[in-house]
């Protein structure tokens, strides 16, 4: 039976692989899990990157795609002069702000927006609107951490994505 990996999530594929291997082992009288997809398999870990690194790599590729799609090479600051009025754009805004709050907490998210305005990624009006959206977030983060360079690069991807929707 052929399984198309695109039809399943990663956990489901791992379960299928384990079940297949276990059924093979039962025919030989063995019950141990010899799945090549188990987490402690050194062959599986060789080319594996942490999920956060893979996500950031994917986001940076998207940033390059957004940049290469521009018809003219005159990308100027501020990159995001206004927030798009589309539902999809609002979803991107909420995802971005949720990322900032869950990673760094409410105060650091506010500081990040101010920083992005200072370096010219956002206009004053966009920063103000984003702060208004941010006031709607009430989640307390147990262990907030400082935002690092990768987090700011991911924010730049969100800015580019929103700028492409205007």
Write the layout of secondary structure elements.
Elements: H1 10-27, H2 42-45, H3 51-69, H4 87-118, H5 124-134, H6 149-165
Helix pairs in contact: 3-6, 4-5, 4-6
Explain briefly what this protein structure is.
This protein is mainly α and 166 residues long. 61% of the residues lie in helices and 0% in strands.
| Secondary-structure class | mainly alpha
Q: What average pLDDT do the residues reach?
A: 75
Strand content: under 5%
Helices, by number, come to 6
Total beta strands: 0
Rg from Cα: 22 Å
Distance between the termini: 46 Å
Poorly predicted regions: 29-46
The proportion of residues forming helix, as a percent range, comes to 55-70%
Major sheet, described briefly?
none
Order of secondary-structure elements: HHHHHH
Count of individual domains: 2
| Overall spatial form | globular
Structural commentary:
- The chain has 2 domains: 8-44, no CATH class; 50-165, no CATH class.
- 61% of the residues lie in helices and 0% in strands.
- Helix 3 (51-69) packs parallel to helix 6.
- The chain is mainly α and 166 residues long.
- It is found in: Archaeal flagellum.
- Pfam families: Arch_fla_DE (PF04659).
């Amino acid at each position: 039976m052929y399984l198309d990996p695109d039809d399943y999530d990663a956990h489901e594929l791992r379960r299928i692989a384990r079940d297949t291997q276990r059924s093979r082992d039962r025919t030989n009288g063995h019950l141990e899990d010899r799945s090549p997809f188990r987490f402690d398999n050194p062959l599986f870990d060789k080319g594996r990157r942490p999920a956060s690194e893979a996500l950031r790599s994917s986001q940076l590729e998207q940033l390059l795609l957004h940049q290469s799609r521009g018809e003219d090479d005159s990308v100027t600051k501020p990159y995001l002069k206004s927030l798009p009025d589309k539902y999809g754009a609002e979803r991107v805004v909420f995802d971005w702000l949720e990322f900032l709050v869950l990673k760094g907490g409410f105060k650091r998210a506010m500081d990040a927006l101010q920083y992005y305005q200072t370096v010219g990624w956002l206009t004053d009006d966009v920063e103000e609107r984003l702060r208004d959206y941010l006031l709607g977030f009430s989640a307390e983060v147990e262990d907030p951490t400082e935002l690092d360079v990768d987090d700011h690069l991911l924010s730049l991807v969100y800015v580019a994505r929103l700028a492409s929707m205007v």
